[in-house]
Structure formats: structure tokens, C-alpha cells
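Hello again, I could really use a second opinion on something today. My current little project is about how a certain protein chain folds up. You're getting the sequence in one-letter code plus the fold written as C-alpha cells. Here's the protein in full, and shout if anything looks odd to you:
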Amino acid sequence: QVQLVESGGGLVQAGESLRLSCTASGRIFSSYVMGWFRQVPGKEREFVATIRWSGGITYYADSVKGRFTISRDNAKNTVYLQMNSLKSEDTAVYFCNARLFTTDYWGQGTQVTVSS
């Protein structure tokens, strides 16, 4: 069992930056893929970025490529999402995800609001 706790959300103006953190408790195996997703009311949860716990290979949604960076600190069991040049359309609840093969674990979410 894995528990995920996100932090770092808030209210910023367009063009500013935020860094989200996701700390995992429980055993994280090297096969885990960690990720960030986001959701706005009335829409489906959408993929933002993922990183393999072992090796650090990353993938990004086209909408955030070049602005967001996902990283991890294995010693701290923490995944980060550095968000730069934020836009109003980045406003959403951001969820941390841990996937081991077909099993998903989710955090409770953290609100990011970008004012234009």
C-alpha cells in the first residue's frame, strides 16, 4: 500500500512559477511510475507528466512541454513538479499518481489557480 501526499499548490499570477511536491509513504519499488495529473470541474482528469522511479525517464503532455519539469528524490520518496510560465489554463486540481503495473494510487490533490 502506498500513500501519497501533495503540497505546494496556491494562487499565482500568469507567468509565475510554482513547485508541487508529492511524498510517498510505504515501499516504492523501482518498477513504479510516478506522475502528475490534473482536473478541472466538469472535465476528465488529464495527464501532465510522468517519471520512472528507476532511471528517471520522463514524459510530458504537449500542453506543458518546455514549461513544466518533473523530477524525483529517491532518498526522500518525493516527486516534484516544477511549473514555470504558468497560464490561466493551467488552473486545476493537481493529483499525484503512483502506478505499479495496473495498480494506481492517488493523492488527495492540491489546487493550483493561475490568475490572468
Remarks:
- The chain has a mean pLDDT of 95.
- The chain has no helices and eleven strands.
